[in-house]
Amino acid sequence: MECRVLSIQSHVVRGYVGNKSASFPLQVLGFEVDSINSVQFSNHTGYSHWKGQVLTADELHVLYEGIKLNKVHQYDYVLTGYTRDTSFLEMVVDIIQELKRANPNLVYVCDPVLGDHGSMYVPQNLYPVYKNKVVPVADIITPNQFEAELLTGKNITTEKDAVEVMDLLHAMGPDTVVITSSDLPSRLGDRFLVSLGSQRKVRPDGSRTTQRVRMEVHKVDAVFVGTGDLFAAMLLAWTHHYPDDLKMACEKTFSVMHHVIQRTISYAHELAGPGRRPSPPQLELRMVQSKADIEDPAIFLKSFFCPPINTSTRRALVLKRISPRRQSACDRITRDLCLVSGAPACSIHPKVI
Amino acid sequence: MECRVLSIQSHVVRGYVGNKSATFPLQVLGFEVDSINSVQFSNHTGYAHWKGQVLTAEELNVLYEGIKLNQVNRYDYILTGYSRDSSFLETVVDIIQELKKANPSLVYVCDPVMGDHGAMYVPEYLLPVYRDKVVPLSSSTQLIIKTVVLTSTDLPSKRGDQFLVALGSQNIVKADGTKTSQKICMDMPKVDAVFVGTGDLFAAMLLAWTHHHPKDLKAACEKTASVMHHVIRRTMTYANEMAGPGKRPSPAQLELRMVQSKADIENPAVVLEARVL
Questions:
Q1: Pairwise CA distance, residues A92 & A111, whole Å
Q2: How far apart are CA A181 and CA A184, in angstroms?
Q3: Which UniProt keywords apply (chain A) (predicted)?
Q4: A187-216: per-residue pLDDT in tens?
Q5: Is A119 on the interface with B (CB under 8 A)?
Q6: Which chain A positions have a beta carbon within 8 Å of B43's beta carbon?
Q7: Which of B214, B212, B150 is nearest to B185 (CA)?
Q8: d(Cα B96, Cα B127) in Å, to the nearest integer?
Q9: What is the CA radius of gyration of chain A?
Q10: Is the confidence at residue A347, as pLDDT, over 80?
Q11: End-to-end Cα separation, chain B, in angstroms
Q12: Is-contact A159 A353, C-beta < 8 A?
C-alpha cells in the first residue's frame, strides 16, 4: 500500500495527543505519515503543568515551502485536529487547497475541534473559520454533538434531528460525517452512548445515495485525552480500506477505540490503586501496548443501519409469528444487540423502537 | 515490558532521520518513547532544499521543566544523535545528569555525530563538548563507557571489498565482581548508495537489542545489524524501482522504507554473524 498522509497536529514530548496519537497507529497500518507539529509541549494541557512552544502560521508556511520546493507535496490524505489559532487554521486551509490542486483525489479528514458538553474550549473566533473555510474543503469530519450543532445551527434531540444535521453538514462539503458522541438515549441503557455516521455517495448512474449508521458505544468513567485524535486517524485508515462501507469502517474504528481504552483504563486503575481516581499521566493511552489491536481490531461492537427495522418486522417480532426470512433478520438484529451489550442471546428481547 | 526512552533528536516533516528514524522502530518493539524535537525541518539536509526551525537550548530547558514539574522525569534510556549547537548539547548534558540522579540505572545511548571519511561535518567546537562532557556521562562512579560500537571502519574485511568492518566492545562485570570485556567484529555488506537516517536507526535498534541482551553484545549487534540490512535492502530495491533503470535514486527516493519494514524490525531474521575476538 502506498499511501501518504500529511498530519498537522500538536506534538507532546510525553503522552499521546495530536500527532503522537495519530502517527504510530497509522504507521503500524502501513501509511506513510508526514507530520507537521503545530506545537511542541512537554505534555497535554490536562496535567497540572505544561510548557512548550507553538508554531506560527508563517513557520508552518516555511515548512510547507520546503516540501513544495522538493516537489514532494503529493499527499493522499491530510489530517488535522485541535488548533487554537485562526491565522494558523487559515494557513492550513490554503495549504490544503494547494495540495488538492496537486492531487484532486486528496481526502481531507478534519476533526473540527470547537468544544463539548455545551461550551467552546477554543477561542470563539475559530468558529467562523471552521464553518466558512475549513469544513467546506473537508471530505470527512468527526464532530461531536456540540460541534455538529454549532456548525449547523440546529439542535439534536432525536435520531431524526441527528440525520438532518448530518445532511446539513453534507451540504457544507464533507461526504462523510461521523458524530462521535451524542446525548441521545441509547437502546442499551445509560451505560452506552450513541454515535452516528452518514456517508453520501454518487452511484455510477449519477444518482445519490446515503448510508447512515448508528453505534451504541460503551461509556467509560474517565476523562481521556487524545482519543478524538486517535479516532480521526483510525477513521482515516478504515475508510481508506472500506471507502464505500461506512458501517464496516465505523465498526473497525470504534472497536480499536474500545480495545485501547479498555487497556488504558485497566492499567490506569492498577497504577492508581484501589479506590483512587487515576491521574492524567496514568491515563495516557496505552498506545504501543495496543499495537495488535490497532493492526487487526477484533470487532467489539456492531453498528446498525438507520432508520432501524421496519414496522411490519417489529410487529411480527412482538407477535412471534414470523416467516423464515424475517426470522433470520430478527436473529441477526438480536445477535447484533447481544454483541453490543455482551449479554447472552436468550435474554435480549428486541424492543419496539 | 515497561521501558521509557527519552529521545532528543531532529524532527523532519517528511522522511526518516533523527526522531522520525528512531521513534517508530522503538515503539513497534514496545518501548514508550518520549521525544524532544531539537529541530523541525521539512526534510533532511541532503535534499536540494530544506526549511524549518531549530529549538534553542533555552526552549529545550523549558520543555524539560514541564516534564519535571509533573514529576514524570523518570527514564530508563536517553538517546541522542546529530546536534549542531554546543549550548544545546551542554543543556542536554545537564538534563541527563539530572535524570541520572532521578534514576541511577539510566542508560545513555549516544551517537557522537561529528563527521565521517576524514572530515567533520558539525562545527569544530562540538568536539570538546563531546569529548569532555557528553561521552564521559555514564554510570555513577566510573568514567568508563560500558558499550562501544564502531559502526563502520575502513579496516579491510576478510570477506573482500564488498564488505566493511564494524567492531564492538562491552565492559561486563561478572557475578563474582570481576571485570571483563566482550569484543566482537562484524563484516557488513556495503551498499552503493548514500543513506540518511541509518545511523539514527542503528543507535535506536542497538538500544533495543542491548536492552534485550544486556550481557551479550554479539547477539545485540547481530540483531541490530540484521535490522539495518533488511531495511536498507528494501529501501535500495524500492529506490532503484522508483528511479528507473540506469538512474541514480534521489534523496527523496532513498528515504528508508521504515513502515514497510515493520515485521523485520519486530523480529529481525539474523543474517549477519559477529565474531567474538
A1: 13
A2: 9
A3: Acetylation, ATP-binding, Cytoplasm, Kinase, Magnesium, Metal-binding, Nucleotide-binding, Phosphoprotein, Sodium, Transferase
A4: 999 999 999 999 999 888 999 899 999 999
A5: no
A6: 66-67, 70, 72
A7: B150
A8: 18
A9: 21
A10: no
A11: 32
A12: no
pLDDT tens figures, B134-159 = 888 754 333 346 888 888 888 999 89
Residue A127, φ and ψ in degrees, nearest 5: -55, -50
Q: Which residues pair with A141 in a beta bridge?
A: A110, A177
Nearest to B51 among A50, A55, A66 (CB): A66
Distance CA A57, CA A80 (A): 14
C-alpha cell at B276: 567474538
> Annotated catalytic, A229?
yes
More confident residue, A75 or A335: A75
The reply to whether residue A30 touches residue B260, judged by beta carbons under 8 angstroms, is yes
* CB pair distance less than 8 Å for A28 and B28: yes
Mean pLDDT confidence for A256-265: 96
Closest among B201, B267, B262, B200 to B228, alpha carbons compared? B201
Q: Which of A273, A329, A336 is nearest to A301 (CA)?
A: A336
User: In chain A, whose CA is at the least distance from the CA of B24?
Assistant: A24
Query: In this predicted structure, which of A231-240, B61-70, B108-117 has the lowest mean pLDDT?
Result: B108-117
* Rounded distance between C-alpha atoms, residue A166 and residue B35, angstroms: 39
| Amino acid at residue number A269 | H
Alpha-carbon B194 to chain mean position: 17
- Output Rg (C-alpha) for chain B, integer angstroms: 19
DSSP reduced 3-state for A97: helix
pLDDT on residue A307: 66
Q: Which residues neighbour A197 within 8 Å (Cβ) at sequence distance 6 or greater?
A: A166, A176, A177, A178, A179, A212, A213, A214, A215, A246, A247, A250, A303
Residue B116, strand partner residues: B119
Per-position DSSP letters for B179-243, written without gaps between them: EEEEEEEEEEE--SS--SSHHHHHHHHHHHHHHHSTT-HHHHHHHHHHHHHHHHHHHHHHHHHHH
Rounded to a whole number of angstroms, the distance from the CA of B212 to the nearest CA of chain A is 17
- Phi, psi torsion values for B140, nearest 5 degrees: -35, -65
Q: CA A330, A331, A337, A342: dihedral to nearest 10 degrees?
A: 160
Q: Which residues of B touch A289 (CB under 8 A)?
A: 30
| Burial group, residue A190, by CB count within 10 angstroms (0-12, 13-18, 19+) | exposed
Number of neighbours of residue A237 by Cβ within 10 angstroms: 26
Cβ within 8 Å, pair B66-A40: no
Number of cross-chain residue pairs from A and B with Cβ atoms under 8 Å apart: 129
Between vectors from CA B192 to CA B190 and to CA B194, what angle results, nearest 5°? 100
What's the complex ipTM? 0.95
| Closest to B24 (Cα-Cα) out of B269, B222, B256, B212 | B256
Of the candidates A27, A48, A63, the beta carbon closest to that of B52 is on A63
- CA neighbours closer than 13 Å in the CB half-sphere of residue A309: 22
* CB-CB neighbors (< 8 A) of B65 in chain A: 42, 51
